[in-house]
Amino acid sequence: MIVPRFGGGWLRVAACLLAMAAWRPAAAQESAGLRDIGFDPSAQRYQLGQGLRLGDSGLALGGYATASAAEHAETGTNLRLQSLSGFLWWDNGGRWHAFSEIEAEDLLNADEDTLTTRNADLELERLYVDYTATDLLKFRVGKFLTPVGRWNLIHASPLVWTTTRPLITERTFPTNATGLMVYGSLPWTDEGVEYSLYYSPGEELARDKELDTFREAFGAHLSFSPLPHVHAGLSYVNFEQRYSPDEHRNLYGFDAVWAWHRYEVSGEFHYRVNDGYDYQSNERGLYLQGVAPLSERLYAVARYETFRRSDADRDINVYLVGLNFKLQPALVLKAEYSRATDNDLNVRDGFMASIAVLF
């Protein structure tokens, strides 16, 4: 399908995102008019980002959406309806809980000549049931986010500082697992030590055939606060992947965040060892990210990443600077510029901006 050209330069990206920012989601509009069409009365108490409770059923709806624009010297301007994710969870105040997330990806792509939906894809991100015996002992069965590091567990676009995610948070391990998890809080410190132990037999629910998912995995994650204003985590996963069943791997990870008076410094380090192979087959990488407030709603963001993939001769280094503007707590506008060196993975660099809303 042919569409008009967008115009010239990075100003196109900013103009598109500002137009999106001016849009007010229907759920956040004045609810008075909704009463006239028989709308669910509970929706009149809805607040953006808090989800919508469905009466007294224990069910609630939520989700998030992201639209992005990118400008690159080689590919020109690209606009995307990047993701539309829907949550449905159930909690009646008892010991049992359930949660599901379905995400539609790349619903719409547009560049300077074409508009297409052919890359659209629908994925089951999460579907699990929890049982709480005590705060010390909880059980989860189903499909869940792999508990490695921090970013993978809070990756929803309205909740992270940048449009793009660090390489090691999606390149060194499968980001979802299907199986059984035991988790809880150990009373070893004043704030407790959060733990999770999990096993995946490799039969992933609604498997994305384009992803190299777990063939088998077991792992553990600890999260604790060693100092005031500091939160740290340790991760370990022993696994094989579906498309490389003969490669047995061990992933070791460390993550930490320091937050004080709206300033934040965070990072993760991963080291993946491929058993039975030479040193060059291992992977390692890290990112270090800093955030500083510029005004009540505006933040400056800077990040450095380095990543050495299997059998690569050199590290990929990515440098990013950006701005994050919180129009509302659940409505965020982001703009960033990144530059990658030794870019063997075709990591996107150049200008990028996005708007993200949490329902």
- What's the gyration radius in Å? 21 Å
Category from helices, strands and their pairing: mainly beta
Strand count: 18
Tell me, what is the CATH class? Answer: Mainly Beta
Outline the structure in words:
- It is built from two helices and 18 strands.
- By secondary structure, it is mainly β.
- It has a single domain, classed as Porin (Beta Barrel), CATH 2.40.160.
- The chain has a 16-stranded antiparallel barrel.
- The longest helix is centred in the N-terminal third of the chain and has 13 residues, at 10-22.
Descriptive tags:
mainly beta, disordered N terminus, about 55% strand, Porin, about 350 residues, 16-stranded antiparallel β-barrel, 2 helices, globular
